[in-house]
Amino acid sequence: MESSSDSEAEREAVKQDLKNAKINHSDLTKDMEVKAIRYAVEAISKSTLDKDAGSYLKQKLDTDPDFQGGGDGAWQVVIGRSFAASLTYATHYLMFFELLSKRRSVLIFKTQ
């Protein structure tokens, strides 16, 4: 059973993560945005290299039931300090955001 102090600490952590995120573009639902940001923070915190953080984040998106809609396409993840992209994606399955405290940009999208 979760204590009230644990749930309060979790809510504060979520607030802090959202405060440090700048969403540039998103077609995801608000709940999915929050989860994506939390997963990205967790991935970057646990990884030394951006490619490892990307793999971790992709695994989280691939296994979370909330991210399973949108057809048979696969989730793609790009994490880094500077990049450009031109892509085709499934409608309602793209998010591009910056984690200001981690100095990283994150692009997630589901292919068609």
Automatic annotation (TrEMBL):
Q: Which residues form a coiled coil?
A: 4-31
| Listed GO biological process terms | microtubule-based process
Keywords (alphabetical) are: Coiled coil
The record, for Pfam families, names: Dynein_light
Coiled coil as a keyword of this entry, yes or no, is: yes
Membrane-traversing stretches:
none
The record, for InterPro entries, names:
DLC_sf, Dynein_light_chain_typ-1/2
Name assigned to this protein? Dynein light chain
Taxonomic classification: Eukaryota, Sar, Alveolata, Ciliophora, Postciliodesmatophora
